[in-house]
């Protein structure tokens, strides 16, 4: 009789966790490599190739038992004194802008001691946007820590990595002005900036979930409100208090900001095109049309575009963000040409006001004439000054009746009237 100690465990737990069959264990080795360690894909392959459908938790236990995954390493912990360090990083997020999904760059900065968080979004993230963000971040924190830990991205790092990293001179100059210095974490050690790495999934799952935004301005306004009312107001288990409460202690240890903060902008030279626009970042901004063909200086700020000619400010536009090939025109820059009112020629003024028949003929003559009708009006005025009024008006009445505006024929008609009035001789004559 076998002893009870030798009996296999007859527990519910043992029944729920069957051992991995030997053929499956051998198959898992190659399947794990083919599926690149993806458990869901291995589950699909197991059903297709071996007609087995174990539960996902059972499959992951079989993988662990086969020692196919490297066991996790012991994790350490970093401790920071108030005002000692801040961390900065970026991550691409999918957001809904104006009803359309857009990939936006989420930039964030956190104080390592109090975990006070600042988040903003950008259509892209170059050194220009990095300077904008860092300036707004230290304003939000009302100070800076002497060290800002970043990854080895080429936005700020121009060569090397880790302790050997070389930072862009313009970024070093900005950091020095704001009271801190950059430090890149060692390669393959992202946990060195774990304070800023972990909040990204929370931002996606809490802030972005279920929210839509009109544009980047609305997105960043809501992100700022979320930082103040949610992220920094919720108590942290590691802190025992909310970040805002811990920030009250850390704020006293931050590097003070200079009295005057440096403006962040880019300057480019642009020639105004034939339609009266300057192009920057694939978008077009209007300038007064008198500057067509001229070279102007365009100052690109975080939220606006300024167009200048030397020290003269020509236009200020709201910067177009997150769009391409858009066009923005300010009122008054490209007015629609208005036709000048046609003033009657001097000759028409001299002809009109004497008789309704002559007034009507002058108006009809101007309507059918080329241009303002100065030449025919001048000739008609000569008729008025040369011939008697009666024959002139009689000929004009006939010309109006038949729509005759040939002034040569009109003059012959006037002469016929004159001859009839002054030289009307009896056809038979008097006999001598």
UniProtKB/TrEMBL annotation:
It holds the Pfam family Mu-transpos_C_2. Residues 78-251 form the Integrase catalytic domain. This is IS21 family transposase. Residues 327-346 are annotated as: Disordered. It comes from Candidatus Accumulibacter phosphatis. It comes from the Bacteria.
């Amino acid at each position: 009789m076998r002893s009870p100690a030798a009996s296999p465990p007859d527990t519910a737990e043992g029944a729920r966790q069957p051992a991995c069959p030997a053929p499956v264990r051998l198959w898992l080795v190659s399947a794990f490599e083919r599926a690149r360690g993806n458990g869901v894909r291995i589950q699909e392959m197991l059903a297709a190739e071996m007609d087995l459908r174990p539960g996902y938790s059972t499959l992951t236990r079989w993988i662990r038992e086969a020692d196919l995954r490297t066991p996790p390493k012991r994790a350490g912990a970093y401790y920071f004194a108030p005002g000692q360090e801040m961390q900065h990083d970026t991550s691409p997020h999918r957001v809904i802008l104006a009803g359309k999904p857009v990939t936006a760059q989420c930039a964030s900065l956190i104080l390592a001691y109090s975990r006070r968080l600042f988040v903003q979004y950008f259509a892209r993230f170059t050194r220009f946007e990095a300077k904008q963000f860092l300036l707004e971040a230290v304003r939000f924190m009302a100070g800076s820590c002497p060290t800002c830990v970043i990854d080895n991205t080429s936005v700020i790092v121009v060569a090397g990595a880790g302790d050997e990293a070389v930072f862009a001179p313009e970024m070093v100059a900005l950091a020095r002005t704001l009271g801190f210095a950059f430090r890149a974490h060692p390669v393959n050690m992202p946990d060195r900036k774990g304070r800023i790495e972990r909040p990204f999934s929370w931002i996606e799952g809490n802030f972005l979930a279920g929210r839509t935004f009109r544009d980047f301005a609305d997105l960043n306004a809501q992100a700022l409100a979320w930082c103040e009312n949610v992220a920094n107001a919720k108590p942290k288990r590691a802190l025992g208090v909310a970040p805002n409460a811990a920030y009250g202690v850390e704020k006293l240890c931050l590097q003070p900001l200079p009295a005057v903060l440096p403006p962040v902008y880019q300057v480019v030279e642009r020639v105004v095109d034939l339609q009266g626009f300057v192009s920057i970042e694939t978008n077009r901004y209007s300038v007064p049309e008198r500057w067509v063909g001229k070279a102007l200086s365009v100052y690109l700020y975080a939220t606006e575009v300024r167009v200048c000619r030397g020290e003269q400010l020509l236009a200020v536009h709201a910067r177009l963000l997150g769009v391409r090939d858009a066009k923005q025109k300010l009122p008054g820059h490209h007015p629609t040409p208005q036709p000048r009112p046609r003033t009657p020629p001097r000759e028409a003024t001299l002809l009109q006001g004497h008789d309704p028949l002559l007034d009507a003929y002058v108006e009809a003559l101007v309507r059918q004439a080329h241009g303002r009708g100065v030449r025919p009006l001048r000739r008609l005025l000569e008729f008025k000054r040369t011939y008697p009024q009666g024959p002139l008006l009689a000929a004009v009445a006939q010309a109006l009746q038949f729509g005759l505006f040939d002034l040569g024929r009109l003059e012959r008609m006037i002469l016929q009237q004159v001859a009839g009035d002054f030289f009307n001789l009896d056809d038979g004559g008097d006999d001598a």
